[in-house]
Amino acid sequence: MDMAQKTTPHTMILAFLLFSIGMLLSSNTFAAPKFATKALLNAQMAAERVARAAADTAETTARTAADTKETNARTASDNALSAAITSSVHFIGDSYGGGKVFYVYDGGHHGLIAALADQDGGGGIRWYGGSDTNTRARADGVGAGKANTAIIIANQGPFDGNAFAATVCNEYSATDAEGVTYGDWYLPSKHELNLLRQQKVTGVVGGFADTIATYWSSTENSSTNAWSQSFALDSNQFLNAKGNPIRVRAVRAF
Q1: Domains of the chain: which residue ranges?
Q2: Measured torsion, CA atoms of residues 185, 186, 187, 189, in degrees rounded to the nearest 10
Q3: Is 70 exceeded by the pLDDT of residue 27?
Q4: For 180-198, how does the pLDDT look when each residue is reduced to its tens digit (9 = 90+)?
Q5: How far apart are CA 213 and CA 231, in angstroms?
Q6: DSSP class of residue 251?
Q7: What is the 8-class DSSP label of residue 104?
Q8: Does the pLDDT value for residue 132 go beyond 70?
Q9: In this structure, what are the phi and psi dihedrals at residue 111, rounded to the nearest 5 degrees?
Q10: What is the rounded radius of gyration, in angstroms, for the C-alpha atoms of the chain?
Q11: What DSSP string runs through 157-224?
Q12: Residue 117 clears pLDDT 70, i.e. is over it
């Protein structure tokens, strides 16, 4: 038998060892890239998680900042509104709007203001402009005097051209401490005149002629007379001939 073809146990063992080494080397050669690829994927996933967490944090921070800004703006707006509402509330006796507050309603947001002195020039003044006519200035209540005043002037203004109760109130103006001039004064209605007289008695509004003076209202009764009121303690309201010169105090609304 040829020696090259002769197989021995040693030869078989050597062949097995060489085959095993070859398989091991082959396994390591192909496994290394596999392990490297897996590590790269893990690193990429970790980086994505970090980036996503950073983005979430940035978004949360931005949202919190926006919410805080909106809350601060709303608070500032609410505070400004509250201050404006508070500053617009007035009480009887306040110096405001060119005179003295003598009546309030709607929680002090609205009311009536009296001029600080009479407008008749000191000797009284007539109600009409020289003609006994039905002016229809017969409204009464809070605010009614403004419409009455306009009606009286429109009806009586063209006659003799001289001043009368409605015109001296309408033409009156007063400037407050802040330099604001108020020119929307009018002859008070019968009801408004009584409200004014009440605060004269309490001492809230002063500057009246005397304790028993009589004042005109803008509320007409007929072609020849209109309502007036004594500012004495009895506070009588009674009719007066339109040509009689009696006292006048202008008021305005707010």
Answers
A1: 1-87, 95-253
A2: -120
A3: no
A4: 999 999 999 999 999 999 9
A5: 6
A6: E
A7: E
A8: yes
A9: 175, -160
A10: 49
A11: TTSS----HHHHHHT--EE-TTS-EE---BPPPHHHHHHHHHHHHHTSS---S-TT-EEEEEEE-SSS
A12: yes
- Could you say which DSSP state residue 249 is in? -
> Which tokens in the block code for residue 65?
């900042």
Measure Cα distances from 36 to 27, 31, 39 in Å: 15, 9, 5
Tell me the whole-structure pTM to 2 decimals. 0.68
Using CA atoms, how far apart are residues 62 and 57, in angstroms rounded to an integer?
A: 9
Q: What is the rounded CA–CA span in Å between residue 96 and residue 91?
A: 10
CB 218 within 8 A of CB 166: yes
Q: Which two tokens stand for residue 249?
A: 């105090």
Rounded-to-integer distance, Cα 217 and Cα 6, Å: 149
Per-residue pLDDT of 41-89, as tens digits, reads 777 777 778 778 888 888 888 888 887 787 776 756 665 555 555 568 9
Residue 215 has pLDDT above 80, yes or no: yes
Beta carbons of 145 and 187 less than 8 angstroms apart: yes
Structural tokens at position 158: 């063209």
